[in-house]
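Why run this: before we spend reagent on co-expression, it is cheaper to look at a predicted model of the complex and decide which construct boundaries make sense. The entries below are exactly what would go into the expression plan.
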Amino acid sequence: MRPLIRVGLLLSVGLPALCLGQAPADSTGLTGVVNQVGAGTLSQPVSADSGVQVSAGQGNGSATIKMSEDFSSGGANSGVGYFNIGSLTASTPLSKSTSTTDLATLDGLANATTLELKYSGLRSSGLRIPNSAVTDPICAHAATAFSAANPTVKEIPDCDEGFVDKYDPAEFSAYQSQFWDVQVRSRLIWGVSAKAGYQNMSYTDTTTLGAKTVNETPLSGEAFLAYNPNAGHSLVTLDYTYQRAYTAATSKTVCPPNTSGGNITCGSGPFGAPKETDEELISVEVRHAFRGLLGVAVTATYDAQSHTKGIDLPLYFLKGSVASLTGGLDIGWRSDNPHATVGLFVASTGFGLFHGMTAGGKSSTPPTGGATSP
Amino acid sequence: MSTVTVKFVVTPAGTVASYWISVGNQDVPLKNGQGSVNVSSPSQPLLVWHFEGNAGDSLAITGTVGSKTVVQVKGSTIPPKQSSGAGSKRFQV
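The model came back. Tokens follow.
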């Protein structure tokens, strides 16, 4: 755990201004950390001499340093593409708390200082080299339509699926099929991650009423396998997650009797040692996007420790931007609560099919319906 | 006829999950979005790119020989309702 302590010191010393400013969503305004890890700006991850991408950021009350590498192999000539991403992330809270956050989510370690190792891979089949005799006329037709729609624009954009979809939509399928063989197209995504934290928690001893401090080590690990048949709008994911988290005891004000007869001194805080909570979650998720108008992700989860079952059904229909669904209605049920829950939600990222896998060293959190995970 | 090395830099934007590029009959392996390929000169090879992500995500590609930019794709975009994008561009070396 010592390396984690060093990271925390580095961030708190190197980034005094960060703690006071408004937290940006991603890696911006972190010149202090950049200067310590390499040259560059944080609009993109920094490439250190080793070739490892390094980025730093703050958000949600924590400061983060992330080292990542991604590898692309295969491609259109071999018909199959492989893409792998590995990352090591150190994160420390900007303001320390003695209690963890919502244990019902799969990320109950959020408030602790953490070190996280992730590796994920994607295999995509059906890539192919286009026949220029087919694509060139389509691009020429789309370029003509572009020029007609934009008579003052001299430079015609590069021809790609987006361009053809916009300026020659009737030929979009013909153009797309030149790049992807729909007969053999599919995606397989897998990943493993491990996360360990360091959490210093103070509490009042219930027997001696004295102040005590204990160092806890929250842990979590996850492995998943996802299949995207025909590279379409559905994704089936099998996931296993183990988590050990700690929750502070209920806070109380305690006034021990003064045996010498003087004034009574009271203290307040968590009364009793932190409680350890173990979760071992096995889940199956099926998500489907309906024409960009509705995203559905139904998850059935079983907690092997508590034998609790849960079903979560977030419906994404609120758009956060032109292209992404970021909010909607969440319907949930769990076996230890006789009542189903219904609520509105806003996800940190839009509805997607790639299980949070993002190239380029940027952080990405897959939307989770944790409100009803057992 | 000689051989030149074209260096590529691929820059994803948004939530791009994966990307691949090919030049002629060669797939170009990339590490952190950078890779290179040898091609005959003079020639007009075809750059082909594929990428996956969510609608609206984009990819930029720059190919250079020495300090000279020989091919540039400023922002290929995944169309609405799609989870992948692709395109091709012929260039001169």
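Chain A touches chain B through 59 residues (CB under 8 Å). The radius of gyration of chain A is 25 Å. Bring this page to Monday's planning discussion.
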